Amino acid sequence: MSEVVLKVENVSKTYPGVRALDHVSIECRAGEVHAILGENGSGKSTLLKIISGTVAPDGGSVDIQGRPLGAADPRLAHSLGLATVYQDDSLIRELSVAQNLYLATKPAEVKFSEMVGWAEATLRSYTSDIPAEAIVGSLTPAQRQFVEIIKALLSDPKVLLLDEPTSTLDIEGVRKLTETIRDLQARGTGIVYVSHRLPEILDLADRVTVLRDGVHQGTFPVTESLSEADLVAMMIGRDLTSEYPPKSHAPSGTPVLVVDGLSGAQFSGLCFKSSPGEILGFAGAEGNGQREALRALGGLEDSHGVVACSGMEVDLSSPRQALKGGVLFLSADRSGEAIFPELAVQKNMTISRLRNFVAGALLSGSAERKKAEKMRDDFGVVAASLGSPILGLSGGNQQKAVLARSFRAGAKVVLIDEPTQGVDAGARFEIYRAIRENIRDGGTCVVNSSDAQELAGICDRVLVFSRGRVVQELTGDDVTEEKIVATFLTARGDNEAHQVAGETGVAASLSKALRFLVGGSSVWWLPLVFLAVLTVLVSVFAATQSNVFLKPINIRHILLATAPAAIVSMAQLHVLLVRGLDVSVGSLMSLTVVMASFLMNTDGSLPVLALGVAVCVAIGAAAGLANGLMVRVAKINAVITTIAMLSILQGIALLARPTPGGMINQVFTEFLRIRIGFVPTSAIALVIAVIVGDLWLHRTRSGLETRATGFREEAARRNGVRVNWINVRAFILAGCMTAVAGLFLGSEVGVGHATVGENYALASIAAAVLGGAALNGGRGSFSGALLGALFFTLMVNVISILGLNSSVGVIASGLMTLLAVFLYSGIGEFDRLVRKIIRRRPARQMAAAE
To answer: Which of 147, 371, 569, 735 is the most exposed place for a label (fewest CB within 10 A)?
Structure first.
């Protein structure tokens, strides 16, 4: 018998009101595929999270290769020889494929400078044609899943956990994965495999463990006599006579949905009609345009053509407009686009119909609850309470809840992408039944699924896509799994390039220019180009309006004033990178100036000055550490934490210096104002500092881990990144740099002043954002923070020398900050608006029978 590489003994886990696991024990041997089966909510995902080190059990033990997993730490599990392919992936979608693969390696295993070449070679070794420099977010779900699998295999694990690995893979992807699993078995890797696709279990698994309601029901060998029906009976505790409800008779009556010549970026020439009570399927290998076509019908993708619902043309410019026309889309990305994770089950089901429950000026809670209870009963949603967050439900019950909302939203056409992805066999039947029953009264449903067996089981007709076009329509007895798969595997055709949404050349050019301008996370320096051009334009304007602007003394004044603003902006950037915010930096700068007036007032000896600088920086580090610990350990919101710190620091500064006073040593202030010609050495030092900072941020593993933490903290944690330390470190570095900024500010004012830094908090955020930083983390650069600070300082200077009211500068600063946020965060909506305005599709009515 092979050695046991994974041993789980008496593991239990309880969440509020739910016993997720109850003394579960399993073993996985070397070279074995050990399947875990169970309905949604049976405890499978919780078990895998405990084994992988992402969740701590209440009791029990986990041993990997004979060594205990002593803490809930993915890095420890990884070091013991375990790797995990997560169902909701651990990829940072804002980073490239190469960067994601690199994060999965051990430090110093691959040189950062060789990352792209190494990633390309790694992808080729798995016969993958995915570009190494492609941004993960631009990949298809199947491609992302395959990158996730490759990433997990980089460490040559002895134990591999696969959680729904084929849920988004196409036929070719499943074939590649099967070959990989066979190879891993031959090398002695133990594989724990979770899937709702029962044919895969029968084909791959050596043994299967069944969980039901968190209880271990038994472990059974997979033999030739074991059938899918047997597995279903084990899972749900009863026989399931038929997985699919009866199909409707031949479609008849006036078509509900008519599509004529719909084309988009990934598909073209889509024409079909769908009748009342009919379920129409979209099939094809992943990446052939069927998903994009379905999303276009729901108003989520740009397209052109004519779509009519019940005889009236549908405006597909947005999902809201599509719904007004009677068409509703339900996304396959349940957590990202279908549910409202933090809202209750009731609100998730009723949110699209809240206006129906208004009594007077208020919402009638009783009417809403009564409707939600009926929807729950109609669709079989199992929830402890309608008031509990929907995130606590199993995937199947989440899906039934959003189906209830979709079919009660008043739409005549419901578009469903992957209706049962990640859903167990028992819940699938209930979902199929709900779909069929809820289109009987004059509605129709269009379904896209990567599961050909599912399409064959529920659809009355199937349109097969290949290379962006419908190549076959299957009806009646031809709607079988074999015919569907054979059709799209043997189809041939050309996929034409299309100008999206019928837009003019002006719209296409403007849209392309806007995308190039903001560039996203892949081209971090583009905001710098925009800001540099803006700075030059303002400078040229000022030079033409005043002969004072270009004088050396004015330029020196601008550069000296930029130093504290730039340093505190770079300090703020550290926190922004990890999705934080520090509004206490202004009061910390003021306290630093006050402390400098005490510590460096008369004695100008080097030891005294050095000690004073050290104490000021230490105060900054202490304030940053306190902020970091309160945010990460005490779990207090960063804004609330730093507002409290602002008050504390400001109060200390006012106690020490109620009124300005106490000279800061002139030797020290002159040292910080040394210049070469008219250029202050501080400006040169800042340029060197930003170069070093950006090299660290964009050319080192540490910088990559920082950005990964800001983009997607949970994914970074699953990759072994020490996210808590990175967050605390960001606040400490921000505190230290803010103290240095305070010292430069002290050299400007010369005396202890308890409120001198109060305007720098908001200014530091504005400068960093203008330089490309994002409030939702991950993006930005130190050179951008420097340029942002320089631009704001320049604006103040220009307004002053032109004799304008100082309030103009405040207004201009606010407008520029809003512009930056708009460009780097809201470009998608602006792009959509440009397309909508320029194309101006004529509204037309169309007879449904045409």
So the answer is: 371
Rounded to whole angstroms, the Cα distance separating 694 from 692 reads 6
3-state DSSP assignment of residue 250: coil
CA distance 30 to 44: 21
**Is the torsion defined by CA of 792, 795, 799, 805 positive or negative?**
negative
Closest CA to 616 of 742, 517, 701: 742
Inform me whether the pLDDT recorded for 840 exceeds 50: no
* Cα 753 to Cα 760: distance, rounded to the nearest angstrom: 14
The answer to whether 98 and 117 have CB atoms below 8 angstroms apart is no
pLDDT of residue 453: 81
Q: Is the pLDDT of residue 486 over 80?
A: no
* DSSP letter (8 states) at residue 353: G
Read off the pTM.
Answer: 0.75
Cα 536 to Cα 157, 543, 662, 763, 823, distances in angstroms: 54, 10, 40, 21, 19
**Among candidate residues 260, 253, 256, 415, the one with its CA nearest the CA of residue 844:** 260
**pLDDT band with cut points at 50, 70 and 90 for residue 822:** low
Between the CA atoms of 175, 181, 187 and 191, what dihedral angle is there, to the nearest 10 degrees?
Answer: 180
How far, CA to CA in Å, does 436 sit from each of 59, 358, 431, 457, 536?
44, 31, 9, 12, 63
pLDDT in tens, 648-682: 999 999 999 999 998 999 889 999 999 898 899 99
pLDDT in tens, 314-370: 999 888 899 999 999 998 877 778 888 888 889 888 888 788 888 777 888 888 888
Q: Which two tokens stand for residue 401?
A: 């809840």
Exposed/middle/buried for 587, CB within 10 Å: 0-12, 13-18, 19+? Answer: buried
**DSSP state letter for 774:** -
Question: What's the burial of 674, exposed, middle or buried (CB within 10 Å: 0-12/13-18/19+)?
Answer: exposed
- Cα–Cα distance measured from residue 10 to residue 69, given in angstroms and rounded to the nearest whole number: 14
Q: What's the rounded Cα separation, in Å, for the pair 720 and 219?
A: 32
Strand runs labelled E in 523-671: 661-663
Nearest-angstrom CA–CA distance, 6 and 194? 15
Residue-wise DSSP of 265-292:
SS---EEEEE-TT-EEEEE-STTSSHHH
337: left (phi over 0), alpha (psi -120 to 50) or beta: alpha
CB contact burial 456-482 (16+ within 10 A = b; e otherwise): bbbbbbbbbbbbbbbbbebeeeebbee
User: Helix and strand tally (H, E) in the chain?
Assistant: 31, 26
Q: Which domains does the chain have, with CATH numbers?
A: 4-236 (3.40.50.300), 254-326+412-493 (3.40.50.300), 339-409 (no CATH), 515-832 (1.10.3470)
- Residue 658 burial (CB count, 10 A): 9
